[in-house]
Amino acid sequence: MKRLTLLPLLLLTFSLVTYGQTKKEKDQKAIKDMCGCYEIKFKYAETFSPDIAYEKAYDYRAHALEWAELITDKDDEISIQHLLVVNDTMIIKHWRQDWQFQNQNVFDYTAKNTWRVKELSEEQVKGQWAQKVYQVDDSPRYSGSATWVHVDGKRFWENRTDAPLPRREYSKRSDYNILARGNAVKLTDYGWLHEQDNDKIIRETGKDDILLAQEKGYNIYTKVADEKCKVARDWWKENNKVWKKVKQEWDKVFAENKEVKLKSKVDGKMLHQHLFALDNKASRKDIRAIINTFLN
């Protein structure tokens, strides 16, 4: 009699476990489907400001060719390195995105080149993936945790998080200092879409945040033949060792610190200029020494 009572419970438990594994596999596939060679269109437009006297910025348009290399493929961690292809021959190491399953540590951008480690509870991250985005020098940019959604043939992940000014504006504007990013990663029949609903925020210590303007953004990734990005794939094979060391040192920085604050320049150069000068022979000690000069 007891066996008959336990059977439905065991079947239910088995079906729930099976469903959870299937969902996770769908998540993993969605993330890895962002790898490959892509032609990208960048489109941004400011849409609203609470200040009627505010003059909206000109719309931003750009395009690029980019290779997205799968550099980590583990059950609970997937990492993708993006490489820009310029004029068919020149390669620029671009951003990196790390995806971590049920990760309880993310980094929040506060202001003034400062990131703080935020600890999340097990309940908060249950079934979620944290996306951690890094700059060209592997320093932090923004991160957030959310659930991948698979419904009605759609695959997407959405999150809101604070970030520094985008690369397209940080050298041109000083009228705001926080980009509150509304990020939506959507897989499509042509590739994938990074859709954004952003708030441009003025943040000062001890004061309430002020909304300067809002903007809509589309980074449209259209899949093309991998052969178009062969030069980027070859470049990564030749140069990945030094960047593996850089990543390892940044991981140590965050393991050792609850807050990371970076200087903008050292000896008149930005961090990426120092690191881009290194090759595979560079030691982790030398790399950490460079990073340390930028830590406040």
Fold topology:
Elements: H1 2-32, E1 36-48, E2 60-73, E3 77-86, E4 90-101, E5 105-111, E6 114-119, H2 122-125, E7 129-134, E8 140-146, E9 149-151, E10 154-163, E11 178-187, E12 191-202, E13 210-224, H3 230-256, E14 259-261, H4 271-276, H5 284-294
Antiparallel strand pairs: 1-2, 1-13, 2-3, 3-4, 4-7, 5-6, 6-14, 7-8, 9-10, 10-11, 11-12, 12-13
Helix pairs in contact: 3-5
Low-confidence stretches: 9-18
Give the beta-strand count: 14
What percentage of amino acids are in beta strands? Answer: 35-45%
Helix share bin: 25-40%
Mean pLDDT: 93
The helix-and-strand class reads: alpha+beta
Distance between the termini: 68 Å
Global shape: globular
Order of helices and strands: HEEEEEEHEEEEEEEHEHH
Radius of gyration (CA) equals: 21 Å
Organism: Hwangdonia seohaensis
Protein name: DUF6607 family protein
Signal peptide: 1-20
InterPro entries: DUF6607
Describe this structure as you would to a colleague.
Helices cover 27% and strands 43% of the residues. It has five helices and 14 strands. It has an eleven-stranded antiparallel β-sheet. Strands 5-6-14 form a three-stranded antiparallel β-sheet, with no helix packed on it. The termini are far apart. 24% of the residues are buried. Residues 1-20 form the signal peptide. It comes from Hwangdonia seohaensis. InterPro entries: DUF6607.
